[in-house]
Amino acid sequence: MTELLVADSFLVADGKVRGTELHRERFVRSCAAAGVDAERFWDEQLGRMPGIGRWFPRFELRISGELAVQLRPAPPIGGRLRVVVHDGPDPRAAPRVKGPDLELLGKLKASAADRADEILLLDTDGTVLEAAYSAVAWWDGDILCFPESDRPILPSVTAQLLRRIAAGQGVETAERPITPEALRNTTEAWLLNALHGIRPIHAWADSPIDPLPNSLSTSWQSHLTALAAPLP
After folding, report:
1. Count of CB atoms within 10 A of residue 4's CB?
2. DSSP code for 73
């Protein structure tokens, strides 16, 4: 059995973080649902984060009821991805809470490591939910799209930040169901998470690599990076 009831991780780069309030809200809300008040703990521990270097801390509520933080050096930032689709139903027990399924998702991702960098999970109707460690977004022409938020997906902080950027630039966003086949044929598809920000999908399973010479991800990653704010 996993030791985690709730977890939340984010990139700290020289004392700056993207979407701090959104990470706090998600962690505190999930802890409250488990019967633990984590507000003071979060605020105290956040104030102890290093102001120099790159870190990827993980805030945790363990099954024992203990609140803890793992202060981990941040892994290197990744780039373009090759993805595969999970063959079978979504195996997660608590898809809308980060923590309980992290060990399972790690094993699932590792099982595909010889073929791809990430693995996509599907809903019961065959539409894309998210990847093991990433949310999904794609472009339909000039519209930035996301899976429907009422499906069994983790509320993604990075996706919420992209929606803010889109609103500020007058870019239309939409929530839509999409199959893996349709996702392959979109203008451009991205995987999103707090460590890497935006990573465009450049290949599917054994298909050839798409060089994506005019990828939109570069400018949007710059906008995302600009949202990083100093820790309190």
Report:
1. 19
2. B
Alpha-carbon gap, residue 28 to 42, rounded angstroms: 8
Q: Report the CATH number of the 81-230 domain.
A: 3.20.10.10
> What is the distance in angstroms between the CA of the first residue and the CA of the last residue of the chain?
36
Specify whether the backbone of 219 is left (phi greater than 0), alpha (psi in -120 to 50) or beta.
Answer: alpha
Please say whether the beta carbons of 103 and 126 come within 8 A. Answer: no
pLDDT of 232 reads: 83
Evaluate if residue 191 carries a pLDDT over 70: yes
Tell me 191's DSSP state.
E
Q: How many other CB atoms are found less than 10 A from the CB of residue 52?
A: 9
Nearest Cα neighbor of 7 from 128, 103, 119, 122 is 103
How many Å apart are CA 145 and CA 97, to the nearest integer? 22
Task: State which fold the 4-70 domain adopts.
Answer: D-amino Acid Aminotransferase; Chain A, domain 1 (3.30.470)
CB contact set of 178 (below 8 Å; sequence gap of 6+): 127, 128, 138, 145, 147, 186
Q: Which tokens is 74 given?
A: 């941040």
CA 59 to chain centre: 15
Q: How confident is the model at residue 206 (pLDDT cuts 50, 70, 90)?
A: confident
Give this prediction's pTM: 0.95
Q: What are the domain boundaries of the chain?
A: 4-70, 81-230
